[in-house]
Amino acid sequence: MKIRAGFLRRFSLALFAFTVFLFLPGLAGAQSPAPTIEFQISGKPLTAFTLSDLKSKLEPRRIELYDIEYGKTKRYEGFALGDILRLGFGENLKSGEYTDIAFIALDGYNAVAALSRIREPGGYVVYSDLDSGKWEPVGKQGTDPGPFYLVWTGKEQTPVNEYPWPWQIAAVNLMRFQDQYPLVFPKGAAADSTAYKGYELFKGRCVRCHSMNGEGGKVGPDLNAPKSIVEYRPAYMIKEFIKHPSIYRYTHMPDNPDLTESDLDALLAYFHYMKKTRD
Questions:
Q1: Cβ-proximal residues to 208 (8 Å cutoff; 6+ apart), any chain
Q2: Which are the contacts of 190, defined by CB distance < 8 A and separation ≥ 6?
Q3: What is the C-alpha separation between 188 and 210, in angstroms, rounded?
Q4: Whole-structure pTM value
Q5: Can you say how many angstroms the Cα of residue 182 is from the centroid of all Cα atoms in its chain?
Q6: Cα distance between residue 2 and residue 207, in whole Å
Q7: From first to last of its 279 residues, what are the pLDDT tens digits of the chain?
Q8: Residues 6+ apart with CB under 8 A from 104
């Protein structure tokens, strides 16, 4: 009788749990949200489109390219970047007020690029991996690049040349960089100064992951708050880590072997300049 009573008790608890599962909203029959891209202007939402919306309004393209992230030729289905931006931003895209576009990923990664580069042909926002039937994992961490992934078909359209290749895109932000990220901008620095050159490098290649005074990417650490990196790391170590981070630790940060000594000096000058503005 004790065994039977114990069985009935466990059965009743299991039945109760199953009933709760069925009737709690969001558990039973829950569906993944439709893939969506939000369009923002200076960080403020403008509009948003689901993948179904985009397919109904734009012409899907099938493309084949050498994907630098996978290191091989890949086939995708997606939309021309120019088409998707014109749909999302309309006449705002023609305004001379804006200088940059940020592609914002699900994990907070911000890939910022000059609007002049983004306007070039060759960019595609893809949503389907035609080789695998589903997304093939990408990167050191084996990440699912969906729902949207930005690729480029031109041989020179690479991250080294400041063409972004972000995956897991959730939003696109049209902006004037110094308005969106005033604490990253080296206010008062001459446009021909070494510090300003370092800022341009930081904007093109670093702010997608790193922040400055709390503004910028959220993947890597802030490089100026609460302390500047130049306050606790010697210059030679900073330069070496920027060029070859993979030698020292497992990290999302890519190697940057193409950066020259002059480039690294410019980044250090920018870090020192921003330290002074914080003080």
A1: 109, 110, 111, 112, 164, 166, 217, 219
A2: 196
A3: 22
A4: 0.71
A5: 19
A6: 66
A7: 444 445 444 444 444 444 433 444 444 444 568 999 999 999 999 999 999 999 999 999 999 999 999 999 999 999 999 999 999 999 999 888 899 999 999 988 888 899 999 999 999 999 999 998 899 999 878 999 999 999 999 999 998 888 999 999 999 999 998 888 899 999 999 999 999 999 999 988 898 889 999 998 888 899 999 999 999 999 999 999 999 999 998 887 889 999 999 999 999 999 999 999 876
A8: 110, 169, 170, 171, 172, 173
**How would DSSP label each residue in 32-48?**
PPPPEEEEEETTEEEEE
Residue with tokens 């069925």: 22
Q: Measured between alpha carbons, how far is 174 from 45 in angstroms, rounded to an integer?
A: 10
- The first and second tokens of residue 34, run together, are 């439709």
Minimal CA–CA distance to 263: which of 232, 242, 237, 234? 242
Specify the amino acid at residue 261: E
Type of residue at 71: G
Helices and strands per DSSP (H, E), number in the chain: 9, 11
Selection from 136, 137, 118, 135 nearest residue 127 by Cα: 135
CA-nearest of 62, 69, 60 to 131 is: 62
